[in-house]
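User: I'm new to structure prediction. If I give you an amino acid sequence, what do you actually give back? Let's try with this one:
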Amino acid sequence: DVQLVESGGGSVQAGGSLRLSCEASRYGRGCMGWFRHFPGKEREGVAVMDSDGSVTYADSVKDRFTISKDNAKNTLYLQMNSLKPEDTAMYYCAADEYNLGLARSYTYWGQGTQVTVS
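Assistant: Good question. You get back a string of structure tokens that encode the predicted 3D arrangement of the chain. For your 118 residues, that looks like this:
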């Protein structure tokens, strides 16, 4: 199993920035990504990084969010700039041994970190 622990959420004013971190318990050769959940809606993919380093972003966050990974630290990051109130959600880190893109069917999930933009 892989344990994922997110951090870095918080409250910020519109136009501000936050950086989320996701530390994995062990190195994974598969895909890792960030998802978010709005109350009353299904979880949606935000940004993912495949095993070959290629990245995919949801249209709603392109040019504002950047996903990156530090393999030496087993840590995935999400730099979020120009935040909007509609970005307010619980953000989750996910991992899987297969490249799943923005699909929600990842095997491993973190506990989530709240991002609030006012």
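You can read the tokens as a compact description of the fold. Here is one thing that stands out. Residues 45 and 113 are 15 Å apart (CA to CA).
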